Amino acid sequence: MAAVSAAAARLHHLLSLCVAVAGLLLMLLGGGEASVHEYRGLGFLNKGNAFILHAGSEGLYAPSSPANATTAEDDEDAAAAAVADAFIRFDKITFRRPKDAAKETGSAMVQILVFEIEDREMIGGSAYGGQKAICCTSDLAKLGACTEGSVIYRPSQVNPGWPQLLFSSFDGSDTIATLPSRIIPITKTGMYNMYFIHCDPSLAGLEIEGQTVWKNPTGYLPGRMAPLKNFFGIM
């Protein structure tokens, strides 16, 4: 009798463990609609002639329905339709610069670069074959390759309309610049990266607040866990 009770106890423990594991898997697979990247108290790092803040990196799956293959420039209805599928959304992104810098510099610009990992070689350039620069130099501008002070990139050969480059500008002596809420639909499966970049040394001390939301068609699985997708599928 004691042996039967012990076996029953072990079975109950095993079932409880299975329920707990199943619950954890459900949380991983369907518990969250999207990945949220929040920005507060983060600084820009000097990389060559650019000042860069890595804003996120996620694996995103393109929707299976071609009807949702819209672009970031489509109208509000098309962008709203993309909400149900795969997208990157910008929410209340605000940049603040010191008052002294605003008085001395005047107008300035922060750029937001979003690209798929296959297009990483499309970022940056060099006037004479030397080390790549992220920000357009006067030499490159004279060659007509880019606009001085802007991020250098070339159009993707495999993903039309990419990389995506957005802008947030400080006007005059304003200390605050905002990026309007915006959705970038994802139409190609891949690993996507986002960087906040400025090319102006006078923006030292720049602060950022806000968040971005990264969503897959059927919920969210972190990009770095993508190889486990098939494993989860057979559980």
From TrEMBL:
Keywords associated with the record: Signal
Name of this protein: Os09g0439700 protein
InterPro entries from the UniProt entry: GPR107/GPR108-like
Native species: Oryza sativa subsp. japonica
Leader sequence segment: 1-34
GO cellular component: membrane
UniProt keyword annotation of rRNA processing present: no
